Amino acid sequence: MKRATAGLATTTLTLTLALGAAAQSKTVTGETLRVKATVEAVDEGDRSITVKDEDGNYHELAMPEGGRIADVKVGDKLVVSYYENVNVRLKAVDEPDVNVEQSSSTPAAGSAKPAGTVAKQRRMTARISAIDLKAPSIAFTGPNGWKYSTRVADKKALEKVAVGDRVDITWTEAVLIGFEKSK
Prior knowledge:
Elements: E1 14-15, E2 25-29, E3 33-43, E4 48-53, E5 58-62, E6 77-90, E7 99-107, E8 116-132, E9 137-141, E10 147-152, H1 155-158, E11 166-179
Parallel strand pairs: 1-10
Antiparallel strand pairs: 2-6, 3-4, 3-6, 4-5, 6-11, 7-8, 8-9, 8-11, 9-10
């Protein structure tokens, strides 16, 4: 089980790289997923909960600040919406590497329980480590042993980049958490 704002949904991201001369950046907007879940465990000290979705999968969620985590009980029902957006930009040769992460938490107005939005954005410089034109797919390596590979929707985009090219990858993720009213 993974604690993150992104651990909620298993999504296959089809990355489209449009890195030609005219377009040096491409944004891939993910779909918003909406999941109903039940609280299975509450960690007040860590401000996190473990939920079980309708498919029987467990996920750990960081809870927004505000609202009393002590008011969240095992068995509470909630609706979680998950959103992901990825931007890939080819870097200039002399541009410095980046590796930064920001997060924020916004409570829902008027909620006693810690409902609201938890968002995270990570920006890092990575290097293209492999390209497979047959799949088609691309793989990256980045700071601290980070590795990532994904399918690519536009096979022609892979012809515009090469193994060894540096890119900036920016992930934006948000989880909106809302509790159902008790009956």
